[in-house]
Specification:
Distance between the termini: 34 Å
Number of helices: 2
Order of helices and strands: HEEEHE
Oligomer: single chain
Helix content: 10-25%
Structural class: alpha+beta
């Protein structure tokens, strides 16, 4: 559910058509996160999906961090 005065069709316009959007839900250091696949095969930390305020203060969980996952 989206709480906004902007209509949802305006907010999500073109979102379904993006083929390059590859997001992965992952638990990083006991914190639920969402990672984005980058072109070189690594991942970038897109967002922290935690309800614990301490997770947002951790330097190693800041968005933009590059993550290398083993295959």
């Amino acid at each position: 559910m989206l709480w906004s005065i902007i209509p949802t069709d305006v907010v999500f316009n073109g979102f379904e058509q993006r083929d390059d959007l590859q997001l992965l839900d992952y638990e990083l250091e006991s914190c639920p996160c969402r990672l984005r696949r980058l072109t070189d095969g690594s991942f970038g930390l897109e967002t922290v999906c935690s309800t614990n305020p301490k997770h947002f203060m951790q330097r190693n969980l800041q968005p933009g961090r590059r993550i290398f996952l083993s295959k």
